[in-house]
Amino acid sequence: MFLDIINKIRFDIKNDRVGPDCPFTHWKLYFKSSMLHLCKKKFESFDDTAEFRAGAYAICCSKISIGKKVIIRPQTMIFADPRDENLGKVIIEDFVMMGSGVHIYTSNHKYDDKEKYLIEQYSYEAENVYLRKGCWIGANSIILPGVEIGENSIVGAGSVVTKNVPSRTIYAGNPAKLIKKI
After folding, report:
1. For residue 72, which of 116, 131, 125 has the smallest C-alpha distance?
2. pLDDT at 84
3. Does the CA dihedral 11-16-21-25 come out positive or negative?
4. Strand blocks (E) in the chain
5. CB contact at 8 A, 141 and 159
6. Quick check: is 26 catalytic?
7. Residue-wise over 62-79: b if at least 16 C-beta within 10 A, else e?
8. Cα(137)–Cα(159) distance, rounded to whole angstroms?
9. pTM exceeding the 0.85 threshold for the entire prediction
10. Percent of the chain whose pLDDT exceeds 70
11. Could you tell me which residues come within 8 angstroms of residue 53 by beta carbon, excluding any fewer than 6 positions away?
12. What is the chain's pLDDT, residue by residue, as a tens digit (182 residues)?
């Protein structure tokens, strides 16, 4: 048991992730200075004015960039992809607002081979996701691979975004559709 605890501590410190499933580093998210230190070490880039709150998850942090005044709230899941150096990144630019429970994915499971179980088909090639300056992602929205949310656009709460959202527009629904231009 003692060896298991030591191995878990090592895993939490060295692994490319942050979240409640990493309790030996997760506690640092409760305190601003230790949160900044942890996030600057783990993420590709993390601005001094950004926050990553306790209860949020990030997988493959080294491929996630978080800009000025961005707050990653509890229950949010950011899932970058480790397989390709240039694909599967998540870029969150400055002044992006996000509600709690937002999920961002850069890859999806394959399902094309009828002869194989889904779990045996692995994933499609990853795609980058971009949240451009000043956009607002409503709580519990899902952003799928390859999507770009334009500058100063709004995604309504609970939306599933499958395609790019142009700048200065409001999109909502499942799948998200244009509601109006701003």
Report:
1. 131
2. 87
3. positive
4. 17-18, 45-46, 51-52, 57-59, 64-66, 71-72, 77-79, 90-92, 97-98, 103-105, 129-131, 136-137, 142-143, 148-149, 154-155, 160-161, 169-173, 176-181
5. yes
6. no
7. ebbbbbeebbbbebbbbb
8. 9
9. yes
10. 100
11. 29, 71, 72, 73, 74
12. 889 999 999 999 999 999 999 999 999 999 999 999 999 999 999 999 999 999 999 999 999 999 999 999 999 999 999 988 899 999 999 999 999 999 999 999 888 999 999 899 888 899 999 999 999 999 999 999 999 999 999 999 999 999 999 999 999 999 999 999 99
d(C-alpha 94, C-alpha 70), whole Å: 7
Three-state secondary-structure class, residue 97: strand
Catalytic annotation, pick one of 26, 37, 103, 109: 109
CA distance 106 to 35: 24
CB 113 within 8 A of CB 124: no
CB atoms within 10 A of CB 102: 24
Place of tokens 């937002």: 102
Closest CA to 73 of 41, 50, 94: 50
What are 175's two structure tokens? 């799948």
Give the Cα separation of 167 and 106 in Å (integer).
Answer: 21
